[in-house]
Amino acid sequence: MQLYILIAAFGLIVGSFLNVCIYRLPQEGMSIVFPPSACPSCGKALRPWHNIPVISYIALGGRCAYCKSRISLRYPTVEALNACLYVLIYMKFGLSAYSIYYMMFLSALIVITFIDIAHQIIPDVISLPGIVLGLIGSIFILPEPHVYGRLLGIVGSLTGLLTGGLIFYVIAVASRGGMGGGDIKFMAMTGATLGWKSVLLTIFIGSFAGSMYGLSLMVFKGKGRKTKIPFGPFLALGAAVSLFYGREIVVFYLK
Ligand SMILES: [Zn+2]
Questions:
Q1: Per-residue pLDDT tens for 78-125?
Q2: Cα(63) to centroid(ligand 1), Å
């Protein structure tokens, strides 16, 4: 029980850092470590007790302690979501080297999701190191998600990287710019971390969820076919589902 609380608290703290990344990474030349957090409205630096994940937001009624302007609901959402995912990882995979790796991967998915929603970009500073870490991790710690007790291995990682990257490269060329380079690198990163079966599953789930969302926009909001929807959040959802349930889904499908 204490371990659950500890992992949730760790997830909240990392989530708080993810908020800083989501806010600052898309801004050219802004460091993620300096200066300390400040209110986006009045610019006053936050005190440590204004910065306690989720709790400060509730205690302050979702407003800045100084100027009372509204703080985006995104902040507590990111923190709570990250904590929930960390606890789920622990429940599913226990406490191992690759659990910690998967926690990092899910945190990256959260950052990608919220930056893509706000700016329609997937930053290279997340996806490129993600590809390299996936390749290195596959040799030492990352498991093959569909076979118990086997490492993904460099071949599995490279095959995944190429599967994810090439599919999206072809889509990007065919759609003449409808799909960005960010999605290509994001899927290369997912493939390098989870292998080719899981990245296929990711793309399948992401496309399905994305088209359902697009359809519902057309039907309920009267949006046209040309409305641009960021694809990153749906792919991130697909990657998270494959990470947690890839084995079950693939085994079920093969039967
Ligand atoms: Zn303020």
A1: 999 999 999 999 999 999 999 999 999 999 999 999 999 999 999 999
A2: 8
Domain that holds residue 230: 96-255
pLDDT, tens digit, 9 for 90 and up, residues 139-150: 999 998 877 789
In the chain, how many domains are there? 2
- Do 82 and 101 lie in a common domain? no
For ligand 1, the distance from its centroid to the CA atom of residue 56, given in whole angstroms, is 14
| Distance in Å, CA 84 to ligand 1 centroid | 28
Same domain as 182, residue 162: yes
Residue that is last in its domain, among 94, 111, 145 = 94
Say yes or no: 115 and 187 in one domain: yes
- Cα(30) to centroid of ligand 1, in Å? 20
CA of 156 to the centre of ligand 1 (A): 49
Supply the pTM of this predicted model.
Answer: 0.93
Question: Are the beta carbons of 78 and 18 closer than 8 angstroms?
Answer: yes
Residues 82 and 102 placed together within one structural domain of the fold? no
Give the Cα separation of 75 and 16 in Å (integer): 7
Q: How far is the CA of 196 from the centre of ligand 1 (A)?
A: 47
User: Of 6, 11, 4, which is closest to residue 86 (Cα–Cα)?
Assistant: 11
Report how far ligand 1's centroid is from the alpha carbon of 169 (Å). Answer: 43
Number of Cβ atoms within 10 Å of the Cβ of 33 = 8
